[in-house]
């Protein structure tokens, strides 16, 4: 693991380190990193089912080889003195393990469970399609089966030609030995969906992905116990202090994406000042390890992080220096890669630059940009240059934290996790494994209603929402562009059959262009997906009708303006402007009156002086 240069590095020394690290790269690599930071291109390779299947197969055996080496280096259980619990067993980093098993015990069981999984001939059959989801059909008395993905429905990506290449299929595979009580605690950690996160984080470098995977296993067990290997992290895994810290909003996953479709996380000031470092790490791990990493687009394209310091956070932030090694381990364990890291410092706090850059590690330093700003306006301009929208940026002009949308996000996560525990069917946007721990039997009369809520739409999702807040979204802009082109043919179709076929053509073109459609639920403050059906077609037809009215209004407005101009020209001395080659222009500045919030009386006094 990478070690820090010093506890508090001098900014000039860190600048030199960053320059040396960038100069060690080739010109092509530096340009690629710069373009990814700006959201222009991605370093992620193009994925295919065959590629993912082979990578998972290679990762399986690489993990087993590394586990074998790690277990050989650990003392045997016979050399241990008594049971090693969370109270008396420190891990390799000196922190206490939140588990009733020693590190050797849970790694030995994980190794055994992994061997059972790899020995299953059906799991890596050459004829089997790549399994993206596994639906639980076991009896309630059986232990939880291995979830193999993080979504009820497969994610669909497109290649450069626009055709779907990664449309996964359901393959119900399971092994009776892993379903046993002894190995069920590792079901989540053994799932393909969980391991695929680490492959994407390392751009499908199998050796690096295996190292990151094992580091994450230790990190999760250290802070959350073995339950983190059995199921996803829930809000209830945080204690009262940690939930209070989460609600303060100094670590927020924004409800919008950058122009490349990546999710954005914002850290404000010395997050967790007054709390223990364990409280801080557990809150960040829940937000990043679980909530952010469940998004498939962010798995592939990376996570954008923004650290925004405030003037009163300097003293509290220095406390992080004592846990610098733990921060470095966090960046080496997180199942996501950071594709951009923006460090925003006010003038006079450049001393924090060395501390922060020394805590994030070499890999994150290469995609880090440090900005010295004088206020929130300058911060907004700077972030927009990198394709980051600022409408949801959670800092006011006075430096206060805005957490209204963050509280809505917490409410959504609570509803999602509660539905997941009940065994409800989830939307394809919610990347959680379908298998549920201790699921109770459901009869036909007691079926669990599905949970269709969506918290963060994709970049090319068309949003139907009152108030115009979604008007400038890329998906809505593309939607209007398609309507503007196809609306010209609307009046050619007279009969009901022709209009239906015309609408079918529009819908087909919309979906082939990669658009999806969401409706905002005002009651629950989240989105629901609209499939191709009567509701969606009615809204598309209404939008088509509005586009037709808008076009005609513009055409009539342009014609009326030309006619009134000709009438004014004829009134000039009884001659037309065209006959005298005179150009007549009308200009006035009264439209700008009052835009600067000046009182009416002051404006009138100014006009008198001008006259």
Quick summary of this structure?
By secondary structure, the chain is α/β, with parallel strands linked by helices. The protein contains 20 helices and 11 strands. The chain is globular and about 80 Å long.
Can you give a write-up of this model?
By secondary structure, this protein is α/β, with parallel strands linked by helices. The protein folds into 3 domains: 1-37 and 233-402, CRAL-TRIO lipid binding domain (Phosphatidylinositol Transfer Protein Sec14p); 38-231, no CATH class; 458-611, no CATH class. Helices cover 44% and strands 9% of the residues. It has 20 helices and 11 strands. The protein has helices at residues 11-23, 27-37, 49-73, 103-118, 176-179, 192-201, 206-224, 227-230, 240-248, 277-292, 296-301, 314-317, 324-333, 351-365, 376-385, 404-422, 474-486, 496-512, 534-570, 600-610, and strands at 131-133, 169-170, 251-257, 263-268, 303-308, 338-346, 368-373, 453-454, 461-464, 516-521, 526-529. The strands form 3 sheets. Strands 3-4-5-6-7 form a 5-stranded mixed beta sheet. A 4-stranded mixed beta sheet has the order 8-11-10-9. Strand 10 and strand 11 (526-529) form a beta hairpin. The termini are far apart. Residues 3-8, 80-99, 121-181, 435-445, 572-580 and 590-599 have low confidence and may be disordered.
Topology:
Elements: H1 11-23, H2 27-37, H3 49-73, H4 103-118, E1 131-133, E2 169-170, H5 176-179, H6 192-201, H7 206-224, H8 227-230, H9 240-248, E3 251-257, E4 263-268, H10 277-292, H11 296-301, E5 303-308, H12 314-317, H13 324-333, E6 338-346, H14 351-365, E7 368-373, H15 376-385, H16 404-422, E8 453-454, E9 461-464, H17 474-486, H18 496-512, E10 516-521, E11 526-529, H19 534-570, H20 600-610
Parallel strand pairs: 1-2, 4-5, 5-6, 6-7, 9-10
Antiparallel strand pairs: 3-4, 8-11, 10-11
